[in-house]
């Protein structure tokens, strides 16, 4: 390593709350990615960054260093727009908004993630469809984007390798929920995949990394400012994650709910959020001149069935079994059902949403360690949302599991009743899905 700087001194500088220069940040990231700085020193630096924070110019420098750790696709077209969600429970909006936007004339380069912590992953969910290929080379990705206008893959090794390494460290060193670190992680990947505009879905609530609306707004501002510094257009929606999005949480059952939504039979919150995010993509792409026209176009794409056709095209183009769209029994699905019923009458007041994600992991619908294989067939179906009135004995959630999992299903049921669901006798308002918009 060229001894331009000293690892120890840079960690010490950040630990004392001083601002790092872009040269220092770049040097640190480059040497870490080249395996010249060990994990324990990178972990110390991440914790210093987490505790002392970083200003917007340090955040941009970190984004730039992580972006340049790998390859970068550059497309001249204005209409290449992606969306990124900060992660939640039951979040399947990508499967609906991407086909809507693509049907409207937007090119959508989706590079999505796997489940992380208590949150589910878009790539794990789409893999419930037999044959669907989520690993393409960067070259194939670019080719498909131009030919099909819509492509969905996992992060390739060429895209922001520094993020991949740092993310794995953050996951085990309690340094995930930091605004500058999340910003650099998301932006380095989005910039590398070639999107010219970005729509962010920033989740807030019990199932989100940003627990408060204030933190979510700050993350939104940080993402938008960083996007601008890189000359990209961006919009952020702050959305509610105090309960699952839609009614299904799992993998196959979330794919079914997404297809039902594309057929116009989806739950209101999921349909509305998908239309709103897609409309922002259509507007940013310049397909429509006003947001209102873009929203109308998004509604038309859904209602006319054109979005469903795009989703079918996506499945076919990536080798998946497109028959699932008409025959849900082709998706792996566990056959046993254990119903969680209300112990007393009342209004649903809250759900511990991150615990829902953790209980799904207990059933095998998520990973406890990196090598675990996801069971796409297990999940939860929610019959009630916050604000609904439930009578004693009525179902609140159905646990979908296998016959050999009866004991664990009982354990999950007890946790639902004891720790996840809270009811009250006071009337509770149905929460709004979209809390705020930043642009
Ligand atoms: N999603 C990402 O890609 N990175 C983060 O740090 C958090 C959510």
Walkthrough of the structure:
There is one protein chain. By secondary structure, the chain is an alpha/beta fold. The protein folds into 3 domains: 47 residues, Transferase, Pyrimidine Nucleoside Phosphorylase, Chain A, domain 3 (Up-down Bundle), CATH 1.20.970.10; 245 residues, Nucleoside phosphorylase/phosphoribosyltransferase catalytic domain (Pyrimidine Nucleoside Phosphorylase, Chain A, domain 2), CATH 3.40.1030.10; 92 residues, Pyrimidine nucleoside phosphorylase-like, C-terminal domain (Aldehyde Oxidoreductase, domain 3, Alpha-Beta Complex). Helices cover 44% and strands 15% of the residues. It contains 16 helices and 13 strands. The strands form 4 sheets. It has a 4-stranded mixed sheet with strand order 1-4-5-13, with helices on both faces. Strands 6-9-11-7 form a 4-stranded antiparallel sheet. It has a 3-stranded antiparallel sheet with strand order 10-8-12. Strand 4, helix 10 and strand 5 form a beta-alpha-beta unit. Helix 4 crosses helix 9, helix 5 packs across helix 12 and helix 15 packs antiparallel against helix 16. The mean pLDDT is 96. It binds uracil.
């Amino acid at each position: 390593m060229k001894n331009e700087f000293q690892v120890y001194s840079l960690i010490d500088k950040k630990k004392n709350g001083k601002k790092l220069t872009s040269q220092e940040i770049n040097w640190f990231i480059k040497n870490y990615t080249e395996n010249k700085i060990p994990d324990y020193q990178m972990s110390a630096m991440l914790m210093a960054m987490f505790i002392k924070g970083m200003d917007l110019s340090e955040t941009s420098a970190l984004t730039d260093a992580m972006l340049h750790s790998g390859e970068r696709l550059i497309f001249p077209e204005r209409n290449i727009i992606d969306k990124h969600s900060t992660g939640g429970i039951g979040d399947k909006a990508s499967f609906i908004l991407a086909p809507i936007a693509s049907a409207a004339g937007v090119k959508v380069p989706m590079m999505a993630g796997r489940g992380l912590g208590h949150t589910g992953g878009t790539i794990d969910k789409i893999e419930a469809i037999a044959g669907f290929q989520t690993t393409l080379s960067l070259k194939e990705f670019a080719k498909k984007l131009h030919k099909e206008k819509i492509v969905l893959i996992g992060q390739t090794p060429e895209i922001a390798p520094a993020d991949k390494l740092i993310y794995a460290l953050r996951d085990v060193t309690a340094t995930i929920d930091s605004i500058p670190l999340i910003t650099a992680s998301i932006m380095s990947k989005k910039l590398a995949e070639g999107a010219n505009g970005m729509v962010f879905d920033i989740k807030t609530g019990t199932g989100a990394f940003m627990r408060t609306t204030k933190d979510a707004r700050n993350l939104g501002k940080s993402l938008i400012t960083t996007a601008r510094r890189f000359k990209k257009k961006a919009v952020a929606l702050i959305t509610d994650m105090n309960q699952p999005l839609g009614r299904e949480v799992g993998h196959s059952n979330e794919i079914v709910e997404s297809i039902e939504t594309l057929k116009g039979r989806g739950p209101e919150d999921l349909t509305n959020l998908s239309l709103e995010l897609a409309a922002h993509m259509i507007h940013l792409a310049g397909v429509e001149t006003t947001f209102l026209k873009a929203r109308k176009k998004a509604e038309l794409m859904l209602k006319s069935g054109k979005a469903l056709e795009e989703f079918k095209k996506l499945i076919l183009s990536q080798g998946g079994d497109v028959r699932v769209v008409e025959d849900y029994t082709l998706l792996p699905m566990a056959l046993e059902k254990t119903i969680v019923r209300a112990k007393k009458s009342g209004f649903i007041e809250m759900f511990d949403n991150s615990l829902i994600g953790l209980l799904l992991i207990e059933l095998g619908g998520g990973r406890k360690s990196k090598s675990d294989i996801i069971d796409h067939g297990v999940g939860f179906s929610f019959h009630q949302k916050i604000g609904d009135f439930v009578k004693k004995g009525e179902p609140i959630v159905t646990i979908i599991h296998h016959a050999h999992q009866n004991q664990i299903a009982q354990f999950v049921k007890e946790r639902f009743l004891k720790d996840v669901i809270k009811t009250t006798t006071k009337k509770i308002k149905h929460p709004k899905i979209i809390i705020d918009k930043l642009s």
